[in-house]
Amino acid sequence: MTCPYLDYRRSDEDHEFDHDRPYCTVAEEFVSPMKADICNDRHEFDHTSDCETYPDEQASEEKESGSEAIRADASE
Amino acid sequence: MSYEAYLNDRNVILTVAPTGGVHGKDKNQNLPEQPEEIAEQVAACEELGASICHLHARDEHGENDAGRIQEVNDAVRERCDDIVIQNTTGGQSTYDARVQGIRTDPAPDMASLDMGPFNRGQHIITEHTRNNIDQLAAEMRKKGIKPELECFNNGHINEVYRLIERDALEEPYYFNLVFGHGTFTPPTPENVLNLVSNLPESSEFNLLAVGRHQLPLTTLSMILGGHVRVGMEDNLYYRKSEPVQSNAQLVDRTARIADLLEADLATPAETRERLGIE
Lengths: 76, 278
Ligand code: SF4
What we know:
heterodimer; A: 76 residues; three-stranded antiparallel beta sheet; 22% strand; globular; B: alpha/beta; eight-stranded parallel barrel; binds iron/sulfur cluster
């Protein structure tokens, strides 16, 4: 799943581009093509665990709700 | 190739790597990403003496997209005279994406062949298993594509010896020795000498060094009888705090250094002959 903090923008204060580019709304900057793979969860990179910019508290909340879902599955 | 060879046969192969897969225009707006932009810059570099171009493809957002490598090849062929086309099979993406580099029509003259994994950022390890390397080497050989053997650190040279023992490569073996941060070989002149002294007979070597190491270590390579790769894939600055204006700016400086060292730059035809490319 694409990171909820990923946006595609054409400009910020410093840059203006011809096409929309990947932009991290947490770091408030465009992300590199290499990093965009993580933002988009490509090639088994997961934004919650593999991104150092992803907010920690959000990641633990998601993990928590993920494990609750797993527990619910297991009890079915 | 050796210092002796430099004295007697001063023919340097200059590769330009205009784009790569790491940086985007947000880091340097002059970095070419789209097929036409790449082709335009490669053509300017060919005029200045580059005989090989090392190519990556991007999508319209600037993200890596191996599926567009055909478009990049077509644009370069359209704009350039005779430059040797070398497609990447490297980077962080899956094998299925990377193999696109050797499935273009026509096939490229050359392709990079990473000799093993390396780290990128905090969490990325490039996927270069021995099995993948063997498969890529076999397909390249079948199609007559010359592999550029990318050694990101000393241990990767062992992997080339492994391929030679399996008779998977044809002479001359064309190495690309990579120097830089992280899991690359630490960028020092001593390490350049060390790696070069470990190469097998019948080798030619190219040297790539990232960032501010590009200028001194590629110059050293020329003196040692090696070849050079420059370009914005590896270096976004011309000098400290001064962003590169174009790939041609880096190629031009390298061509001038070669001239000062009384070395000739190999033409694309000479490069093909020297590396045994049909
Ligand atoms: S850099 Fe990290 S936090 Fe920002 S959009 Fe990408 S994955 Fe999300």
